[in-house]
Design a protein that fits this description.
The chain is of the alpha/beta class. Helix content is about 40%, strand content about 10%. The strands form 4 sheets. A 6-stranded mixed beta sheet has the order 9-14-13-12-10-11, sandwiched between helices. A 3-stranded parallel beta sheet has the order 2-3-4. Helix 15 links the parallel strand 10 and strand 11. Helix 6 packs parallel to helix 8.
Length: about 500
């Protein structure tokens, strides 16, 4: 039986304080504003809440009119995962591109400029960076979101990103603890297992999180993954052994622990949303991320009731809930103090994203074809996007090449007949083939085979992880599909 709670008693306020919900619309709903008065301390913004920077600033101002010390969170990794520029593509390359350059100063500067823009919009908590080591090339959900497959590289760039972002008063969040890089299952859909030995786990997966903690990261996000060597029964988000025993006690982390989205099937499909939230708090999580899909007041009410009932029945210690709520409020207080002490309007580097994307491009000439000087046909081979990336954000090089090479035409293809379809659409014109993680999609490799057999002068642009061997008259690897990566790739095509 559900016990519905109302009012502003301490228990209810603490239950609301640990929730980090999303909502619909580009203005603040009445129910969110009311809940802020009742104790809600955080909200999360998603692509559906964003129309532009000025609108987001107006939205966060509306929210802070109700509560000044408010955490406004966003999933703005830049690169392939962008919310602030969800409809145009990101002005910054993602982690994999920065890792390819391997200049920690550049990573720090990019994160600082991103933080400045987020702060100017009133956002003070960013669920980034990904501290995952992309050890499994077949990983369907991390990939270019990771700085790379080398532990040392990921560690130093994770630390640099944390330092750059937090210098602007925007809290960083190293994710997905204890490491989502060696999976072949997307936790949005099911519960992944990572069968590693203890040595590999500690020497590879955990090192970037140690670096993030040493750099002062204000938050760590848990992963919905099962790691039997740590806990054979429960996924990290619900495991006291992992969140409290490993992260708090062994690694000495004292900041905020936030969960990954609790409506993801790895949790909600296995444990149920309400029960999963109670288990996460009991395990040591402080903030509950929810709202990527469920973004209504009823969800907040259900979770608030579940937490209050769990305390009253003894399933969740009241002291644990109070501690979690205090950590949320403490992070909000930190962001407020830094915001008030700094002027984030100065020191802009508006072109740093494009500059970084250009540095990340790798060009391999494998043939002797003539340079591209006239209109081409751009064939984009489009895989199904994972939920973290979404399908709203445009990617590719077609629009950029149309601007540079008037008369250029474009087409998008997928599936086993993609190559034949692209050749037919091209009508004999020279082709620029754009792929994303060719190594993970057999149909994509087959399509490239067909194009290269028919036209050895075909240019290939890889906008995912460049795991496959370079091929094509000219092979261009961008290490990500951000808008600026598309610009840099188009420049490389024309430059030859």
């Amino acid at each position: 039986m559900t016990t519905f709670t109302t009012g502003t008693d301490t228990l209810t306020r603490d239950a609301l304080a640990v929730l980090q919900p999303g909502f619909a619309g580009t203005t603040a709903p009445d129910w969110v504003r009311r809940r802020l008065g009742e104790g809600l301390a955080s909200v999360a913004l998603f692509g559906r809440n964003v129309a532009g920077a000025e609108q987001v600033a107006a939205l966060t101002a509306q929210l802070r009119a109700e509560r000044d010390d408010l955490l406004v969170a966003i999933d703005e990794e830049s690169g392939d995962v962008t919310r602030l520029e969800v409809r145009t593509g990101s002005s910054f390359p993602g982690a994999h591109a920065l890792g390819a350059v391997d200049d920690t100063g550049l990573t720090r500067d990019v994160a600082r400029e991103l933080g400045r823009r987020l702060a100017a919009c009133g956002v003070n908590f960013n669920w980034a960076p990904s501290a995952d080591v992309n050890a499994n090339p077949a990983n369907p959900v991390i990939g270019v979101r990771s700085f790379g497959a080398d532990t040392g590289l990921v560690s130093r760039h994770t630390a640099a990103y944390v330092e750059g972002l937090q210098s602007t008063g925007v809290a960083a969040c190293a994710k997905h603890f204890p490491g989502h890089g060696d999976t072949n299952v997307d936790s949005h859909h099911a519960l992944p297992h990572i069968d590693l030995d203890a040595t590999t786990l500690h020497e590879r997966e955990l090192e970037p999180f140690r670096a993030a903690i040493a750099a002062g990261t204000r938050a760590v996000m848990s992963a919905h993954i099962r790691v039997p060597v740590l806990d054979p029964d429960r996924p990290a988000t619900l495991s006291r052994r992992i969140l409290t025993g490993l992260l708090r006690e062994e690694l000495g982390y004292q900041g905020l622990i936030v969960t990954d989205g609790m409506e993801m099937q790895a949790i909600s499909g296995t444990y149920g949303l309400e029960h999963g939230v109670v288990l996460a708090l009991a395990a040591g999580a402080d903030a509950i991320c929810v709202g990527g899909g469920l973004c209504d007041e009823d969800t907040v009410q259900r979770l608030q009731d579940a937490l209050v009932t769990a305390v009253r029945t003894g399933e969740l210690a009241e002291e644990r809930l109070a501690d979690a709520a205090a950590r949320v409020r403490g992070l909000a207080a930190w962001t407020t103090s830094v915001r008030d002490a700094q002027d984030t309007a100065g020191g802009e580097e508006p072109e740093i994203g494009l500059w970084a994307a250009r540095r990340a491009v790798t060009v391999t000439r494998t043939g002797s074809a003539a340079p591209v000087t006239g209109p081409v046909f751009v064939a984009t081979f489009n895989p199904a996007p994972n939920i973290a990336v979404g399908d709203e954000t445009p990617w590719g090089v077609g629009a950029e090449l149309e601007r540079r090479l008037p008369g250029t035409a474009t087409g998008t293809f997928s599936g086993p007949d993609a190559g034949a379809q692209a050749l037919k659409a091209a009508g004999g014109r020279r082709i620029v083939a754009v792929v994303r993680d060719e190594h993970r999609h057999a149909w994509m490799g087959t399509a490239l085979d067909a194009l290269l057999d028919a036209g050895p002068d075909t240019v290939v642009i890889e906008m995912g992880v460049p795991q496959s061997a370079p091929r094509g008259a000219l092979h261009i690897a961008t290490h990500g599909a951000a808008r600026v990566c598309g610009v840099a790739a188009a420049e490389a095509v024309v430059a030859g």
